[in-house]
Structure formats: C-alpha cells, structure tokens
Amino acid sequence: MTQRISLTRYLIEKQRGSRDAGGEGTIPPQLRLLLEVVARACKSISLAVTKGALGGVLGAAESENVQGEIQKKLDIIANEVLIEANEWGGHLAAMASEEMEGIYLVPNRYPQGEYLLMFDPLDGSSNIDVNVSIGTIFSVMVKKTEGPGVSEQDFLQPGTQQVAAGYCVYGPQTTLVLTVGEGVAMFTLDREQGSFVLTQENVRIPEDTQEFAINMSNMRHWAPPVTRYIEECLAGKTGPRGKDFNMRWIASMVADVHRILTRGGVFMYPWDQREPGKPGKLRLMYEANPMGWLVEQAGGAASTGTERILDIQPSQLHQRVSVVLGSKNEVERVARYHAEHQK
Ligand code: AHM
Ligand code: MG
To answer: Which domains does the chain possess?
Structure first.
C-alpha cells in the first residue's frame, strides 16, 4: 500500500528539511504551527458549511462589513473560528480579515509571535445559500519592525514578501491548497480520519488554455483591452485566435482558481466603469496576493493587466485591485493588450 502523507507529516518534513539538502529545513517551527492551526480552523469551517440549514448557518446576519457588504452568518462564523484558533498559540503578532475593519491584535494574555496572518474567512459569500463551492483564503507574512507593537503599517508589504499562502475550498471535497514558496501542494480532507491527506504535489498550470472565467454581465463596463481579449475568445475558431474557447464563472474565486490550478484557464475580475474610482472588486492583501502567488508557484502568472500583482506596494489594508491570473500565455496576452492600448 502506498503510504498516505498527512499535512502534519508534510509540514514536519518541510521543517526538518531533506537529508540531501544537509537537513536544512525550509519552514521554521512557528510557521509550521501556524499552518497546522489554519488547517484545523478550515476543518471546523468545513463542518459548519456541510451542516448548512441543519446547523442554522445559512442566511444573512444583521450587519455590514467594512466594505459595506451585508455579512452572511457564515462570514462571521468563519471569521470567529479563524481568530479563536489562531490567537492563543504564540505564533502570531496580529491578524487582518475581510470581515474586520482594523487589524486584530493578539490579546495581551497570550504570547506574541512574529507572523502576520491575513484572510478572507469565507470567499464566495453569494454562493453560501445556494450550496455552491465556497472557501477560505489566507496569506502569511513576517512582521519586519522590531519590538512588541503591531500596526496596520506592518501589514502593508508587497505579495513578494509572503512566506506562506493558500486556500481551502469547501466543495464536493474539502481541499486545502498550500505554498510555502516551493511549488503548490493539494491536500484532501479525509472526513473519517479528520486529517488532510496529500493528494497532489508540484501542481502545474498549463501555459495555454481554451477556457476563460469572467463575469460577462459586466461586459459593457469593461476597459477596451479586456473587451478586445474576450471578444477574440468569443470569435472562436474563425476569429483571430483560431480556436474555440469555453467559459466558466462560479462567482467564488476559490473555486475558479482551484479549477485553473487543476486544468488551466484564465480568471479575470478587471477594473470596470461601474465605479471608476475603484481599482477592482477583489482585495489585494487576502485575495489577489495569496492567489497570485499560488498561481505563480504553479507556473502561471498574475497581473492587474498593467503590473505584476505581487509587486504592488499596498497603501491600505482593504485595498482593491484588478485581477488577471492563470495560464501564463493568456495572462501575458491580456497584459500586452493593455500595453498596446496605452500606446
Ligand atoms: P466575497 O469575498 O465577498 O465573497 O467576494 C469575492 C467574490 C469572489 O469570490 C468572486 O470571484 C467574485 O466575488 C464574484 O463577484 P460577482 O458576484 O460580481 O461575479
Ligand atoms: Mg472573497
């Protein structure tokens, strides 16, 4: 029988390092602990999601988040689960979440660590009540300033500074997808055992694709380079691309990105004219950065259309950004159309 590798073992082996590499580990013990805790929280969230109406978790809460969006009960539950799981372990300096206006400091009664954890506790909120895949997205950085205090400024580092990133998709299977900067690995939740089991390593996104994901209902509001790209895809075999394209749009970034990591494709949530002052819908720190890094680690690319997402120097915690990510050649093509348009 082939041996099953649990997430715990995978992380311990990363911490220990391989004998060939002289036993030099690639992740410190505190980061291993952090990732174990995040995975444990995702297991709890997965259980709550699975219960649905039976657990009383569906529907809207009576509150709005900092972005002015109505919160769903599960948005709040998932946020609380992640905070409660992470605040006492001693590995974190602070947390930030889509569902909280300011940063969350580790309470004084607990020891403080050096890591900063950012998350979108429940991505794809509009899909909760209709029983479609949703997920949790997370990103980890190191606090660079010395001393005990933590401020929002500590979080404002570009995506290149991430030391771990991932997501957990709650779909027909619960799958945790992780990078610590050495490629992408996928772990499937074994519900009987209660543990995540390694089911794919060295995930690679094909460089070419015939599948795109975008919310087509916004077409009339797009910028010309985006319209050009999608129109060429729609023109199919007899158009300039010379091939037919398929379309998917799940409206859960986690599920769309999971498909792209599994079989390729391009995902776009670009800037549009509905609210010209807003750079896009998705958030840089806990959506675009972690997903962008995962996609790059799998050989794909992630851009705003005009620059690499991971290079953006953030100025705000809840900053929004235009997102184009997935199969490398397609993302590069979209970026080229933007450059040509600027000329
Ligand atoms: P959320 O974090 O509030 O759920 O919003 C993010 C989601 C993404 O998962 C998804 O790609 C997008 O919003 C869908 O937006 P739309 O409903 O405009 O298609
Ligand atoms: Mg989200």
So the answer is: 7-200 (3.30.540.10), 211-342 (3.40.190.80)
